[in-house]
Amino acid sequence: MKIQLILAPPFTKHKHGELSERIAPPLGILYLSAYLRENMKGIELSVVDGQLEGFDGTISKINTFGPDILGISAHTLVANGAYEVAKRIKKEHPQTLVIMGGSHCTAVPEDVIRKSGADLVCIGEGERTMLAVSQAFNSKNGKKSDIDFSQIDGLAYSRMGQVVYTNARQFIENIDTIPFPARDLINLKDYSGWYITKRLPETRIMSSRGCPFHCTFCSCAVWKSSKPATRFRSPKNVVDEIEQLMSDYGIREFGDDCDEFNCNINNASEICKEIIRRRLDIPWRTQVRAYPLPDDFVRLLSESGCWQVHMGIESANEETLKGIGKNITLQQVEQGCQMLRKYNIEVVGMFMLYNAWEEAGRLCYEDTKKTEQTMKYALSLHKKGLINQFMWGPTNPYPGSKLFEIARRHKLIKEGLLDDWEAWRRDELYAMKLPGIDVVEQTRMRTKGQYLKLKHLLLSKGKFNIRDWKYFMEKGLRIIKDEIHARKERKKNRKFV
Length: 497
Description:
Elements: E1 2-7, H1 27-39, E2 44-49, H2 50-65, E3 69-73, H3 79-92, E4 97-101, H4 103-107, H5 109-116, E5 120-122, H6 127-139, E6 155-159, E7 162-165, E8 202-205, E9 208-210, E10 230-232, H7 235-249, E11 253-256, H8 265-277, E12 284-288, H9 295-303, E13 306-314, H10 318-323, H11 330-342, E14 346-353, E15 356-359, E16 362-365, H12 368-383, E17 389-394, H13 402-409, H14 423-426, H15 439-458, H16 466-495
Parallel strand pairs: 1-2, 1-3, 3-4, 4-5, 8-11, 11-12, 12-13, 13-14, 14-17
Antiparallel strand pairs: 5-6, 6-7, 9-10, 15-16
Helix pairs in contact: 1-6, 2-3, 7-8, 8-9, 12-15, 15-16
């Protein structure tokens, strides 16, 4: 039996794309592949990264392989591509079982079924569901009509024009039992790694699944579909994977893509100790919350080779931090940054433009003045030496987030965006139309944020390659074009005043 798993390609070119598709391999479908291979004999597996191949290239790969089961993983910004792939395969290869999953599909399964015509939607964690579907398909000799999908947990599908949901799929409690991602099914050399590195080649791991916090903007619907909210791999399991990456793939640096490395200080500390105990000479990066960052833990981070962290600061306004459920204070931000810099760990501060939330049913949001306050705060942190770089992004209400429901209740999502998911990035910088906020102001703030990001990225001591310089040039041109557009709009608006 042939099973092909793809990361969905974009259907159209993203006008404001970050050009980051070649940075990291698709760990989600590589985990699925490894789990299927370990638990089901006699299958032939193929993995396609649609964001590398593009839409036409992805269709060509599918046609060449000829899968019996096609699994499509999608996030919101490539949902149109996922839908079009499903429709094309359903039309040209009706015998193929098409199952869709990922964060977008878990968040809006009925939209997926209605627009893609897929046979099944996987809701939540995919490993056990994909295995159960594959085993059922194999037992019925590939006859989809003979399978009773109602007996398989974690699915949604259409029956007689109605969307049917099966029982919720429970999480895999011990995620050490999931084999390491099947990186042998891709060419790791296709992925350049992060822009700023100590050594190359670089790649990614995930030391945990999920996050115990509930920020309103978080759209990671898969990890919210069951309990426990956060599961941690054992230190031995994590460091075994690091050693495998070093010995089998020649990896010389890695990034941990867990949501918050320090949300379990004990487990995180033991991972650091295990790296130190094995004397692994490998620099690495991760993501942390501003709190807690105790001295002894940060010291272990540094001693184990961690040289950079991404910290979600989001806003300079305490009211906002409380409203969006961030549950940190500016004092904790500065204390955390001070502790990290004490041990020479670089900090990349991540900020959001025009945050929005709800209080007792009342819409609350940051205006341009408060957003500018956040930018000034970021610059002050940099001037004090507390952060090294910036990352900025518009606050957008992606499906799966609390903000998505808030935006729908208050009718903030711009017309047409719920019918064209890729327009969120192809055409729109901001998906929400906030009362009294002019789009020209929003564009100006984003341009300013992108300029600061690019400036400090170029001033860093990263190992840049040709592809990175292409990125810098395209980002620079985009910033210039956005600023020219904003100035034209401001001039036009002044004429009507």
